[in-house]
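Researcher: Next entry: CocE/NonD family hydrolase (Streptomyces endophyticus).
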Amino acid sequence: MTDHHHTIQAGERTIAVRKDLRVPMRDGVTLAADTYARVDDDTPRPALVALSPYGKELQALALTTPPQRRPSPMWDGCVEAGDIARVVQEGYVHVIGDLRGSGASEGAHIGNYNAGGVPLGRDAYDVIEWVAAQPWCDGNVGMIGISYFGSMQVLAAAERPPSLKAIFVSGGHYDFYETTYHGGIMWLMPRAAREGRGGDSGWAFTDGVKSRMLETYTPEEIRNRVADRLRDPDVAAWPNLVHVLNYPKNHEAWFDIVMNEVDGDWYEERNPITLAPNIDIPVWLQIDQGRGWTMDGTIDLYKALNGPKKLSIGPYPPMQSRPFIEEHDKMFRWYEYWLKGIDNGVMDEPAVTVHVEGSRETVTGTQWPPKNVEHRPLYLRPRRQLSYEPEPMGAKHAAPDGFYQAPLTVTDKVEILSWSTAPFTEPTEMIGQGAAHLFVEIDQPDTNFILRMWDEAPTGKRQLITTAYLKASHRELDTHHTTEGDPHHPHTRAVPVEPGRIAEYILRIYPFAATFLPGHRLVAELSNNEPLADEHNALLPPDAFHLPVGRPVTHKVYRDAAHPSRLVLPFTTVAARYKAE
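Model: Predicted structure:
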């Protein structure tokens, strides 16, 4: 395929487009890329590289489609390479490439994020160095794009290509296990991102996508592993998973994820957080509130980086526009400094910037959390109350709360227990991560715990503040890393629950930053499935929910003197009760 040049009109600017450039990889495979640049001169310019398997033609919609916000039905989660016209206007060449096994590129894509195949970071290295050597590039390369494109930036930087001078990552995913299993509970949105369902076009697959599992194990081993996976009632009740396990060649990358339901080497070898100590170039990480697991991963990555770094946490809602246009002002200041050598003062500004929900204030600091935090408990109490005071009575008198959840195959109703504080009398700020200690008895070997924290205004209007997830069989703690208010679970094995026994489950409450204003309440909701439509989920793609529990479960939540069920939360402003002490 030969490349061809033409121009397009974007507003008042004419953009020069080079289509289907062939970029050679070190193993002889060639990848396809398009470039967008100014037509008014031949000056070599810095380049911003965007790489994904979503297809470069899809990314060109940024030139013709106004940015869409959820719940627009025209929002497509895979249009993520950035605002092409603005990139060109700011004096960069925008390079958008198809990863191997996708779009117009050659080669085979093996497994999730190519785990087990050619490392994607290695291909990114070759693309970056090829771009830097072109006559239209001045040798300085950065990267652009959110989500999958953001993860690619980190994988590229870990390979240390000499011409990659800095990266700016918005809305990336990092820990690949946490991308699909939140607290051990399967999240179905990665299926949509790969298959193209429910608001996502999915991967631009070619014939070369292969399952790493099918390549690694014999047919008999695969049969045995599939049969074992189908013994999980949650999996067996979900038609899409029954289908993918029986017909793996339909969706081989998703098959691999479904087959690997616990964490371990399969995920860790390509985990960007594991690779982060190799990165010494400047990195700016940005994430918006309302996406708990990606905020958690963003903060973990930030802590692991060694070079110059910044962290910005933006306001709710969770999903950025598609085509992606947000955060470009920050990005261009960053690249002006690191790619163009203009001292614009960006490195004199605080490293960490956090938007606090509720107060709408900006808090800055040198690390996360940017303020001193004291973890304090809010106890679950009878009559659905949350209180600073623990319950003095035993279970005989402070009888447990409970709910029975039938499988969603036979009901549309998701049962939800909630507990609420009294209205706050003064602004109460929390910044950080937390823990939910729940003493629960169930009558089955497993269930899900899905906890969601809301800020409820006096008018009844609610906004999601943060979430916590834990599959009951994944309750084991990583005692080496767990501290008060900051629990970690290894997720390396599932241990069935003994039905009828009260156990303590400690859920990780994902990082957040919020001030509860006077008159507002903190409401905590617990369920084992989540409602498919509510104030928050309406802002997410249609498939952004978790695998429902496939068996009927009765839950008894104990919150008495012997079973102090509680939320342990990161207070920066100490509640009035404590001020009086």
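Model: Note for the record: Confidence is low (pLDDT under 50) at residues 575-581.
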